């Protein structure tokens, strides 16, 4: 097959499983995934072939300390729906919330899949892993999630931590952290973990990662925290539609004020975009149109992908600027309101004013002296009258 020609792609291989999705939409979607991954547009055909090849890699999806938000956001993606593409392209052999079976039947299906697909299945973990008291604070089938994760990781082809809880502990690990909750990378320190943080994460970041693995049989390039660079390689602040207001010094100072209504920068309301790595302003959420992400709808970014920011920094605390600082010629956000000038500032201002007045007096006196001297010289030069 000539991979540069979309006309050669046999769409009949997938049409039966994707409902009303047209061939054109399917190719467009796969090309978009390639672009998201930073690949050439021709890679979209390879992704389409992989998705339609009939090779359905089994997926074991485990849930620890979580709210199921990561699964919920996954199921709410559209064009095409993930249940139409991913859940028919992969074999979701185990998922507590989505499995048709329950109890002993569900556990038996999971063990059977893991045994039959050693070295081939994808392990996805949602939620933090409690470690205190040997992990007794989260158990499934009378077995701790800590034990389930270690067992499933042994023969997994690749391991994905979905959401901030699985990536680094999330809200469950917030001090005082009574259950000793940690992220998957700490539990499986000897394994390569793909972390897709967010609360919830964007479902297309997971989709693109899985399709990259399915297409090229390897993971996308990761940063030092195990996050795919295509999704977490740039600060939110760099792509934010409110960035021009930041550069111009136009900030909303409180919710509902004129600047907030006009869409000005939310930095001084505590937006954590300047210290948060994610592609939210580029990919958006919910597929409902432009501005469908927190900052676009008028709320500061809370830094949900970053450990040490979300759930720890006060929501109105100023972000640590990792790229550029706001203009220095504008008032600071911490200036007190209505207390007048401070004694120190008054002394400095008084000194400056005194110096200016003194300099003005000296200049005036010099001008006066020059004028008097000039007049005297002119009088000396005049001839005396008879």
Major pleated sheet: 5 strands, parallel
Instruction: Assign the CATH class of the largest domain.
Output: Alpha Beta
Q: Which fold name fills CATH's third level, the topology of the largest domain?
A: Rossmann fold
In whole angstroms, the N-to-C terminal distance is 121 Å
Computed over alpha carbons, the radius of gyration is 32 Å
Number of strands: 9
Give the name of the CATH architecture of the largest domain: 3-Layer(aba) Sandwich
Tell me the series of helices and strands, N- to C-terminal.
Answer: HHHEHHEHEEEEHEHEHEHHHHHHH
Task: Provide the structure class.
Answer: alpha/beta
How many separate helices?
A: 16
Looking at the structure, what is the overall shape?
Answer: globular
Strand order of the largest sheet: 2-1-3-7-9
Estimated share of beta-strand residues: 5-15%
Low-confidence stretches: 1-7
Estimate the helix proportion, in percent.
25-40%
Instruction: Name the CATH superfamily assignment of the largest domain.
Output: NADH:ubiquinone oxidoreductase-like, 20kDa subunit
Report the average pLDDT across residues. 81
The number of domains is 2
Structure, described:
There is one protein chain. Helix 2 (23-36) crosses helix 3. 39% of the residues lie in helices and 9% in strands. The strands form 3 sheets. Strands 2-1-3-7-9 form a 5-stranded parallel sheet, with helices on both faces. It folds into 2 domains: 55-232, NADH:ubiquinone oxidoreductase-like, 20kDa subunit (Rossmann fold, 3-Layer(aba) Sandwich), CATH 3.40.50.700; 234-336, Irregular (Cytochrome-c3 Hydrogenase, Chain A, domain 2), CATH 4.10.480. The chain is of the alpha/beta class and 386 residues long. The model is unreliable at 1-7 (pLDDT under 50). The protein has 16 helices and 9 strands.
């Amino acid at each position: 097959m000539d991979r540069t020609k979309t006309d050669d792609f046999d769409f009949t291989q997938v049409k039966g499983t994707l409902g009303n999705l047209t061939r054109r939409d399917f190719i467009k979607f796969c090309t978009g995934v390639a672009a998201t991954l930073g690949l050439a547009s021709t890679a979209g055909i390879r992704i389409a072939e992989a998705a339609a090849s009939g090779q359905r890699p089994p997926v074991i999806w485990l849930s620890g300390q979580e709210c199921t938000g990561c699964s919920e956001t996954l199921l709410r993606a559209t064009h095409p729906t993930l249940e139409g593409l991913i859940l028919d392209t992969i074999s979701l052999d185990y998922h507590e919330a989505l499995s048709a079976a329950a109890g002993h039947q569900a556990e038996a299906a999971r063990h059977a899949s893991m045994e039959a697909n050693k070295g081939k299945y994808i392990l996805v973990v949602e939620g933090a892993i409690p470690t205190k008291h040997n992990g007794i604070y989260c158990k499934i089938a009378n077995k701790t999630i800590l034990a389930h994760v270690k067992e499933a990781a042994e023969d997994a082809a690749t391991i994905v931590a979905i959401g901030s809880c699985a990536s680094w502990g999330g809200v469950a690990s917030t001090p005082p952290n009574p259950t000793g909750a940690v992220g998957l990378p700490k539990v499986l320190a000897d394994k390569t973990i793909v972390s897709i943080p967010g609360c919830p994460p964007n479902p297309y970041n997971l989709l693109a990662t899985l399709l990259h693995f399915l297409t090229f049989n390897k993971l996308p390039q990761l940063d030092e925290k195990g996050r795919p660079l295509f999704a977490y390689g740039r600060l939110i602040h760099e792509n934010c539609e409110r960035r021009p207001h930041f550069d111009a010094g136009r900030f909303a100072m409180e919710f509902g004020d004129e600047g907030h209504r006009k869409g000005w920068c939310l930095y001084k309301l505590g937006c954590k975009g300047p210290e948060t790595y994610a592609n939210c302003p580029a990919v958006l959420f919910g597929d409902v149109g432009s501005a469908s992400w927190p900052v676009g709808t008028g709320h500061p970014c809370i830094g949900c992908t970053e450990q040490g920011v979300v759930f720890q920094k006060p929501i109105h605390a100023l972000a640590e600027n990792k790229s550029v600082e706001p203009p220095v010629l504008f008032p600071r956000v911490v200036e007190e309101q209505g207390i007048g000038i401070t004694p120190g500032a008054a002394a400095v201002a008084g000194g400056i004013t005194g110096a200016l007045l003194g300099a003005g007096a000296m200049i005036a006196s010099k001008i006066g002296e020059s004028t008097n001297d000039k007049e005297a010289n002119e009088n000396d030069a005049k001839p005396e009258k008879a």
